[in-house]
Amino acid sequence: MQKEYIHIILADDDEDDRLFFTDAFSELKISTKVQTFNDGVELMEYLNQEDAVLPQVLFLDLNMPRKNGLEALHEIKANPKFDSMAIAIYSTSSSEEHIEETFVCGANIYIKKPSDFNTLKKVLSDVVTLNWQYHTSGLNKDNFLLRM
Amino acid sequence: MKAFLKFDFTVLTKKILEEKLSQWGLKYLITGFGEVEFLEDIPEDKLAEITAILNSYGIEIIENQKTALVQKIKDTIIEMVFSDSPPTVKASAYLADKLNHSYGYLSNLFSEVTYTSVENFMIIQKIEYAKQLIVNDKMSLTEIAYKLNYSSVAHLSTQFKNTTGITPSQFQRIIAKRREIANTK
Amino acid sequence: MDFIKIYRSPLFLKVIFVISIAIIFFIAGITLKHIHSLSNASNWVNHTYRTAIELEHLYADIKDIEVAKRDYLLTKDQTIRFAINIYKKDVQKSLEKVKALTQENKEQRKNTIILEELIQIKYQNVDKAFALVESRINDNYVVADELLSGKKAIFDIKMQVEKMVKLEEKLLDIRKANYEDNQNLTPIIIYLLLLFILGLLSLAYFKMNADLINIKKNNDELILANESSNLAEIVGNYGTWFLNLETNEYTLSDNEYRLLGYAPQAFTPSLEDFAKHVHPDDYSYVKEIADSMIHQEILAPFSYRVIKKDGTLRHFKAMGRVVENKSNERILIGTTSDITDAITASEELEVRNRILEANNKELQAFNYVASHDLQEPLRKIETFISRLIDKESESITETGQQYLSRIKASAGRMRILIDDLLQFSRTTRAENIFEETNLNEQLENSKAELTQFIEDTKATIVHEDLPSLNAIPFQIQQLFTNLIHNSLKYSKENSSPLIQIKVDKIIAEKESLLNFQTKDSYYKIVFEDNGIGFEQEYAQKIFDLFSRLHGKTEYAGTGIGLAICKKIVENHKGFIFAEGRPGSGATFTIFLPVG
After folding, report:
1. Is the pLDDT of residue C163 over 80?
2. Any idea where the domains of chain A sit in the sequence?
């Protein structure tokens, strides 16, 4: 696919979920670099740095202390610096209306955390691959909506 | 005051190329989409400079031949999907014919480099076009399905949902709501 | 018929009165005339006898003259001549009287003239006799001749007098006959009229009597009504009042006083006295309305607070209307009711409602949070198990693997339960927004959601074109999904499921399943499948929360799916019914209000 790795960031307050996430990526054939943060505050602190290396895909858990996923999403969408990032909401089950709301607020992807590890691997792989397509084929990222 | 834009990348890139290359006084020929032949040799450092500046416009110089071919495949597919008069022959035949390789070879190469199949890529492009048409808001779902050669709206819905995880109407709704919010800002 | 109508009409007595007066005047008139005739008749009798008497006098005087004449002839006494002159004067008097008496009748006048002539002839005779004596002629023949002519003259006069008297008598008879005719007719007329009047007066009497009885009866009823109205006021806790708009006088009913805590008629009713009891905060509002009510024909219901004599606060509601009484006075009639109890009750109800709502919200929140937060640890369990099974199955014994797979199964069941509970709690949340929803779209969404299951069971779903209506789109989708899922789940083992969805627009009162009679329109959507069905006796039970008809080893399930369907249908103010045919299938009928 390409020489470089795909840069991924996850913000999730749950230790187990962070573990699943990084383990899944490490078992995928795609070369990725995964960073994790414990909540929205840590995430934004990192992203707002002058020389921050922005990920291709940012995974946001919704329920986090101090600053939750939705708040972070609003902040990110408000800053044109982050326009090139694809944002994936990575959350436990939500109602249809909530899911739609996250898309309306600017998220590109919504992922319901699967309860099977293999499913998780497949989901993450699909997301990253599809995002790569958008990245390399001049597709309109604004219209990039994916729900898994 | 708000204006809605549509981008024609072909024209855009061509214009930038022309501007930039003329600026440097380079002699060149644009021999196809994504292909430029320089009529004289360019020294390494100059090339690096040009590459850097073109990169800032998002224009990359692809060095690898395989990558270049894959790019051509992509470009052809995009052209097919987005054209107003799609070719009457099967996509595979059209690709093989246009790019002068067997479809089997092209398809393998494509998967190897992009980790996706040609069919998949085509579907993605089709859905992408559908999304554009939905955002444009001038056609109904039935018309869009027809234009993209689906046998019915249900067929379009199914493929749309399989690709994106949401239905075209949901997509429509989300775009509309996004627009509403942007309008009230 | 007509007569009865006339009898009943109020003009009857007036007319009778007028007719009676007219008849009385008429009778008076006739009587007067009769009396007049009577006096006339007696006058005529008078007249006739006076004439006869005068004529007899006259004749007697003439006879006296004759006798005197004869005496003179015999005696030649001169004094007799004086007597004869006196007799002549008497005759003249009588003659004048007779003339006067007879001047009305033409024939009598003629007779009188003839009589006068005859008397003149007699006087001539007498004068001749005197002359004879004067001339000392003693011729017996002349004397006898003279006496004879004298006798004849008297005889003529007698005849004439008799004739005249007879004539008078005849005239009298004629008049008598006339009079008698009249006399016979008049009493008959008078008696008939009297009878007629008596008849009318009797009618009038009966009518007046009847009217009187009626009035008395009405009066009695009025008294009764008044009493019962007073009682009604006490029972119903309201009072009535009148304001005579012409005289500006207020009248308050007994209970109106009691409402304010006073004894009936405790003070003279006036606006000021009443206003004293109005709660100070409501005073200007009430005054405004009181001022305007006098100008308007109607006093619209309004409420205000008062402070009773004993200081307690009450809520009053008043309303009124202007009516015109029989004397053309405009009276404003009003009612005041004490609605304090109703208001207190409704306030209490509101408070209880709020508490209930708060409780409900709490429960819903609890339900939601519980379901939602239970998902996290469950997911972890499932994921770690899947990791174990995947990565470590080599190092786990076969028993261990079995246990792992059972743990996985249990966790899976728990997941479904929590998912369903979450779904259930979502359908009861208040923030659901209604919008114009195309049911076909939601059906397609449901089918898309169940694509895999539909494919696996090789199911066919046939549906009519569904309408659009005001609904919560996500919930409708959930409803359809749950129903279709059920049909697929409970399908017959060796046949592909067939689900038919039909729709109809019906009116409530014509639909047997709905047992209320209104003209409201509903869409009747029927989901019919060819699955295993169920016993009809459970048709209501299956909608109960957690109620199941099969054990979990026969069919997986939580018993929440249909409860969710019922909740969703209820959210939309609709109805859902189930019908089961064991071994052949089930039918679910949904009613959703049109609009």
Report:
1. yes
2. 6-147
Which CATH number fits the domain that encloses residue C144?
A: 1.20.58
CA distances from C491 to C125, C456, C582 (A): 171, 12, 12
Confirm or reject contact between B135 and chain A (CB < 8 A). Answer: yes
In this complex, is the C-beta atom of C435 within 8 Å of any C-beta atom belonging to chain A? no
Flag whether C353 is in a domain: no
Is residue C225 in a domain? no
Go through C261-290 and write b for each residue having 16 or more CB atoms within 10 A of its CB, e for each that does not.
Answer: bbeeeeeebeeeebeebbbeebeeebeebb
User: CB-CB: which of C386, C415, C477 is closest to A117?
Assistant: C386
User: Could you tell me if C408 and C437 lie in one domain?
Assistant: no
Of the pLDDT bands very low, low, confident and very high (cuts 50, 70, 90), residue C172 is confident
**Percent of chain A topping pLDDT 70:** 95
Residue-number span of the structural domain to which C175 is assigned: 2-207
Give the residue on A whose Cα is nearest the Cα of B8: A138
As for the ipTM of the complex, it is: 0.85
The number of distinct structural domains making up chain C is 4
Where in chain B are all domains bearing CATH 1.10.10.60? Answer: 67-184
Residue of C nearest to A97 (CA): C474
- Substitution target in C372, C379, C477 with the highest count of A β-carbons within 10 Å is C379
Tell me, yes or no, whether C333 and C380 share the same domain: no
Helical spans, DSSP H, in A48-146: 69-78, 96-104, 117-136
Task: Name subunits touching C (3+ CB pairs < 8 A).
Answer: A, B
CB A50 within 8 A of CB A143: no
Contact C383 A114 (CB under 8 A): yes
Residues near B47 by Cβ (< 8 Å), separated by ≥ 6?
A: none
> Is domain B67-184 given the CATH code 1.10.10.60 in the classification?
yes
B75 in A contact zone (CB under 8 Å): no
Q: Could you tell me how many helices (H) and strands (E) chain C has, helices first?
A: 14, 12
Average pLDDT in the A49-54 region?
Answer: 87
User: From edge to edge, which strands make up the β-sheet containing A57-60?
Assistant: A32-37, A6-11, A57-60, A86-91, A109-112, A146-147
Q: Which residue has the tokens 């007899």?
A: C56
Contact C320, C299 (CB under 8 A): yes
**Whole-number Å distance between alpha carbons of C592 and C427:** 16
Domain boundaries A6-147, corresponding CATH code: 3.40.50.2300
C50/C172 same-domain check: yes
Which residues are within 8 A (CB) of A5 and not within 5 positions of it... i.e. 6 or more apart?
Answer: A31, A32, A33
> What is d(CA C155, CA C161) in angstroms, rounded to the nearest whole number?
10
Within-domain flag for C232: no
Alpha helices in chain B (DSSP H): 9-23, 44-56, 65-82, 91-99, 103-114, 118-136, 141-147, 153-164, 168-184
CATH code of the domain in which C332 resides: 3.30.450.20
Both structure tokens of C528: 């019919």
Residue of B nearest to C446 (CA): B167
Question: Is the whole-model pTM more than 0.80?
Answer: no
Q: Are residues C155 and C16 in the same domain?
A: yes
Residues 6+ apart with CB under 8 A from C301: C317, C318, C319
Whether residue C499 sits in one domain with residue C407: no
* Whether residues C55 and C114 fall in one domain: yes
